[in-house]
């Protein structure tokens, strides 16, 4: 990894939010500036929209962007922000009776939004979106007591763990994000149950995605030193880290292997992917 070239890529290609995230990640950042950049996507109701999720350009507050907001709240550690607990309040307000979140709420401004967002059923709970948002919230809860104690997080977690135990044949994205959640709450039994559905190679095709779109070991277990890493042999993880390192492009950034739904999203995903790659490679095995 050439960190200087990655920094140059971020300066010349990435949106302000991801530049601020990269700066904090590499020890050069200002957490107040990072929170200010995140708040540019915040709505008065406490939720987030406005393209915080790159393929969801709608201004409306949605569950999907909550994931990315929690990513930033974790990166602010040890600093806490009242906006994190307020986001939990908003999530509680849109949670369905069974404790799950809908994949998306109604979207009145669909320009630039992926069809899987605009076509979602707002009355159906989604294991995929609930698990990934709750998993990231648990990571924030490690240093933010208000998030840890929020009733929404407990309800969402119970919904996901119950769904995992009673369902078979999870879509690979549901499987990956359920692994994230089980890892975050250190539920070894659920982690073993989910791990049994992942081949030793860690490669699973994403049904409904591009022909060559795969979930790989670092998608299931991106974090060094966490229980989910034990799902894969050390040599598998080492090979994936080597592969990720080699995917740095000549311009210094990384790309993604899934489709984007607007020119803005295609570029924004590259900045996001570069922050993620540098974070994973810095942590190592």
Protein topology:
Blueprint: H1 3-13, H2 16-25, H3 31-39, H4 63-75, H5 82-94, H6 115-118, H7 127-141, H8 145-148, H9 151-166, H10 172-184, H11 188-195, E1 204-205, E2 214-215, H12 217-220, H13 234-246, H14 263-283
Antiparallel strand pairs: 1-2
Helix pairs in contact: 1-14, 2-3, 2-14, 3-4, 4-7, 7-9, 7-10, 10-11
Strand order within the widest beta sheet = 1-2
Class from helix and strand fractions: mainly alpha
C-alpha geometry = globular
Strands, count: 2
Rg: 18 Å
The SSE order reads HHHHHHHHHHHEEHHH
Low-confidence stretches: none
Separate helix tally: 14
Strand content: under 5%
Helix content: 40-55%
> Mean pLDDT, as a whole number?
96
Biggest beta sheet summary: 2 strands, antiparallel
Rounded to the nearest angstrom, the distance between the terminal CA atoms is: 15 Å
């Amino acid at each position: 990894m050439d960190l200087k070239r990655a920094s140059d890529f971020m300066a010349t290609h990435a949106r302000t939010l991801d530049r601020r995230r990269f700066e904090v990640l590499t020890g050069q950042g200002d957490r107040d500036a990072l929170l200010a950049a995140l708040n540019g996507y915040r709505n008065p109701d406490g939720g987030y929209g406005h393209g915080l999720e790159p393929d969801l350009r709608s201004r409306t507050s949605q569950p999907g962007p909550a994931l990315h907001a929690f990513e930033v709240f974790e990166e602010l550690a040890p600093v806490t922000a009242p906006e994190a607990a307020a986001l939990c309040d908003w999530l509680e307000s849109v949670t369905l009776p069974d404790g799950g979140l809908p994949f998306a709420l109604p979207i009145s401004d669909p320009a630039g939004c992926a069809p899987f967002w605009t076509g979602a059923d707002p009355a159906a709970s989604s294991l995929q979106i609930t698990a990934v948002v709750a998993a990231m919230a648990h990571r924030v809860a490690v240093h933010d007591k208000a998030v840890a104690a929020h009733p929404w997080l407990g309800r969402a977690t119970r919904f996901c763990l119950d769904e995992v135990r009673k369902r078979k044949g999870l879509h690979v994205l549901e499987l990956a994000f359920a692994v994230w959640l089980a890892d975050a709450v250190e539920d070894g039994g659920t982690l073993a149950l989910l791990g049994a559905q992942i081949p030793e190679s860690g490669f699973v095709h994403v049904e409904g995605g591009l022909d060559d779109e795969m979930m790989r070991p670092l998608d299931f277990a991106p974090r060094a030193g966490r229980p989910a890493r034990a799902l894969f042999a050390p040599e598998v993880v080492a090979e994936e880290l080597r592969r990720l390192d080699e995917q740095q492009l000549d311009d210094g950034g990384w790309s993604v292997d899934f489709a984007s739904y607007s020119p803005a999203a295609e570029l924004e995903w590259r900045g996001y992917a570069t922050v993620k790659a540098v974070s994973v490679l810095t942590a190592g095995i």
